[in-house]
From TrEMBL, chain A:
Stated name of the protein: Na+/H+ antiporter NhaC
GO MF annotation terms: antiporter activity
Pfam families according to UniProt: Na_H_antiporter
Biased segments, Acidic residues type: 62-71
Lineage: Archaea, Methanobacteriati, Methanobacteriota, Stenosarchaea group, Halobacteria
Automatic annotation (TrEMBL), chain B:
Source organism of this protein record: Halorubrum aidingense JCM 13560
Domain DUF7513: 1-81
Upper taxonomic lineage: Archaea, Methanobacteriati, Methanobacteriota, Stenosarchaea group, Halobacteria
Protein name in the entry: DUF7513 domain-containing protein
Family matches, as InterPro entries: DUF7513
Amino acid sequence: MTDPSDGDPTRQTGEESPGDEPPDAKRPGADPTGGGSPGDDGPATPVEGPALPDGGSQTAADDFDDGSGDDSDPKINFYGGKWASTIPIAFFIFWAIIQSGVLGIGDTNGLVVGALIGTILGMFFVRGDWKAYADTIFEGMTQRVAATAIVAWLWAGMFAETLQVGGFVEGLIYAADALNVGAATFPAAAFVLCGLLATGIGTGYGATVAFVTLFFPAGVLIGANPVLLFAAILSGAVFGDNLAPVSDTTIVSAVTQDADIGGVVASRFKYAIMAAVPAFAAYLIMGSVLSGASLEGSAALRESATAIGLVHLISMGVVIATAVAGRHIVEAISWGLIVAVVFNLGFGLSSVADVLVFTTTEATPAAALPFVQVGETAGVGGSLYSGAIGFFPLIVLTLLIVSMAQIMIRGGGFEAIQDFLLESVATNVRRAELTMVLGTATINGMITINTAAEIAIAPYIARIGEKFNINGYRRANILDANTSALGYIFPWAGGVLVGYQVMVGPDGLGAEYGPEMVVNPIDVVPYVFHGWFLVIVFLIAAITGFGREYIPDRTSEEVSRA
Amino acid sequence: MSRFEKFLAGWSFRSSTPDYAVGDVIEVMVTGDEGDTAVARIGDSTLRIEGAPDDAVNTRVLVAVDAWDEASHAGTGTYRETVGKSAF
């Protein structure tokens, strides 16, 4: 490569002679399956001279005259043409906006019903036999992209919950207390510590609930500004959601863009830190500017602090280091999970039953075992159980969204939207990246459940990016940063709602401490600094080319292993 | 690429028109075609690929760069093998 700004090219072999003709090169007789594997038959086509097209003057549409790949051939015909194939997913998005944006209900199960109704609705627009439509639902659900995300979520859920029962939050509170954090610096500390927790457990929602429950009242009671403190917690959640290898959004961003999770985390560190440093400074400055609520009382919650809970920083480190080292995410989280369980039991942070418990209604000899207990209702419980099943609604929703996307692909709607974007909007690489940034931000700004929004927009990010040979790492970073950021800013965003629920619930902070402990979600919008800065970083990156990598620069190490 | 290098990758401002040298063997996504010739658009640069399969669009292929014009950021190359396909 001669471009001085080029990165680390792969397969750059200077010894190749310009005229080398591959033994398996061919055009006629192509593999009809689209595989095009080496060894296909057909004669080699002579290499022409340097009659070069003017790449600078061509529009994207000129280059993007799609071939006759399978995906471009509509297999389902709809009344109303190919645009009618977008009815299921359009209905779902409309449902999601009404449910979450208008009514403020952040219930993933509700979105599942919306997806089901949308899928049924689309069927009535199919011309002829509906079997092809039904088969496409199965075809979509069995795609590897969905299965990979589901497997990773199940492991991540078990790990996150095991850290929670192991007193990780209490350890972070201890750290804040030991560092003698005051009212003015409390929001900045909350940002860092919540970011640490979210990076460890991978769920920004979980980190928000934990911090608003335990850390938020402690901060307000010592005089921190409630609005700024809540916003700082949300910023920490954004940081972790964006960077954690076990985060649901990280996993979706990687697997949908054909990139390995460890490599994605390493490649997005630069964007995360460029937004986090000014965000930390902003919380320090605004912490001194904004006054706190006048509340009497002491930081009684410090009593729950335990230094030993900080041992789970090592559990976190095991997952991050193993994933970045290129090991499969299932292996990485499994090691982290084993270390976390050993710490929990070894240091007395939790009981065996906190991790896994079988509850029976009658006393049996088995009740002597540490993981068997007698209770009123028979069942299985513990962090492994609750952590895994916590993702079940999202898993079902994912299967439905992927199947709706497949219907759109088979019906021609996906290609129609893609062509519109490529011909009218994303006409060069800068505009393509800006389209990816703004498109992701917009759909996440509208839909409360940011992972659902991310899954819906992911195919477009993949195709638009691929049309300019933008590397999978870069595409994944654009997708996840804007998904994470917008999921915690607006009043209807899921991250804001779960935190607000802790304040206004029946036994919430407002009921316990008074109205000063309740923050109006609209007030936090301007102060979720890390979220805003992350979007700004990516807008600047798209315009300037900072961090941009192309597919020829490097390949993902373990795409097949996710 | 080492673990450390993974964190350092991409800390630069990348041109929208990358250039390649004759002899480079690069992996690209085939983004379209011009008549019988497959084309890969890399940023705003263009690489025509001779000998690619008819259904090469939206597949990732290895290409040996045969000629490159840095003024127009365009070149030609020869298809080597198909190594993957679109993420979707």
